[in-house]
Amino acid sequence: MSNSVEIKNLDLAFGSVKVLQDLNLEVGKGEFLVLLGSSGCGKSTLLNCIAGLLDVTAGQLFINDENVTWAEPSERGIGMVFQSYALYPQMTVEGNLSFGLKNAKLPKAEIAARIKRAAEILQIESLLKRKPAALSGGQRQRVAIGRALVRDVDVFLFDEPLSNLDAKLRADLRVEIKRLHQNLGNTMIYVTHDQIEAMTLADRIAIMRGGQIMQLASPEEIYGRPVNKYVADFIGSPSMNFLEGHIKDGAFETGDLSIPLSGYEFSAGPATGPATLGIRPEHVITGELVGKAPFQTDVSVSLIEPTGSDTLVDCEISGSPFRVRMDGQAKIAVGEKLQLGLDLSKASLFDTKSELRL
């Protein structure tokens, strides 16, 4: 698959502060890539470098095999959707959509055709004569996406476009963006700090920290085989449980527990020494299947959080807080004893010092 966007050895510094460091990234044609990370990790900065809104300190940027490192934003063949809708309040929706096209001196018939197509795709045909003040937040964001859409470009850049919306609207528009990508097949690079958005939208996710990419892989790979403890902790809601201990004689020992490592796939042969065991709340076995688990232990329930479809149960293992996801209909009470089963084939082991996956 040929690349739509390619970034080679990219550095960006503001004075002595390095924001992006020797960053390399390839985005395939038609791919939906999500840049994910906490605030200040460099994801929006990287997007702005691709858009040409920031000048890089070193490295090169290619879009469709053309070196655009020093090209103007208007020359890069990109459409950008920002967190703020940035609509012209005095213009109608139609005026907002056509503004850039008129400046580009496109024929009237071509402008009308592009607006009609974008309005149909985004289901905003009935809003074309309204001004932004008469639109809801979701409708405004649709118009902002439409303004990028009418440019008819190969690469779309989204900078946290849904973060100003309420939860229900965010979920609805997330579906619309996924459908938009399926219908258009254009390359999309999407910045978010919301892992649910990342997991549901992405073909691949780049998890960033400190101006570097920690892991670049499919959502399934990042969820199931996180490359280090940071990625493991960042992905998943609720986050992964961690137990400190050490590996000895084919078992993970924590406190007075010895958990057999049968079924665990080591990245480079069995390890020994200090380690951290990570297991997701949804991978802890409860109920009738506990007896079939390779390891079982009893815990005392300290807190219960019903969420409807699930019940989150808090307890402790070897003095460390431990969370279990159970069925929403589970009958459980605070102070009750609960038997848990652990299957290490779904767990992650990390070296305590380097925090890298073992």
TrEMBL record:
The lineage of its organism: Bacteria, Pseudomonadati, Pseudomonadota, Alphaproteobacteria, Rhodobacterales. Its EC number is 3.6.3.20. Residues 5-235 form the ABC transporter domain. It comes from the Bacteria. Signal peptide: none annotated. GO terms for biological process: carbohydrate transport. GO terms for molecular function: ABC-type transporter activity; ATP binding; ATP hydrolysis activity. Keywords: ATP-binding, Hydrolase, Nucleotide-binding, Transport. GO terms for cellular component: ATP-binding cassette (ABC) transporter complex, substrate-binding subunit-containing. Gene3D superfamilies: 2.40.50.100, Nucleic acid-binding proteins, P-loop containing nucleotide triphosphate hydrolases. It comes from Ruegeria atlantica. This is sn-glycerol-3-phosphate import ATP-binding protein UgpC. Belongs to the ABC transporter superfamily. It holds the Pfam family OB_MalK. It is an enzyme of class 3 (hydrolase).
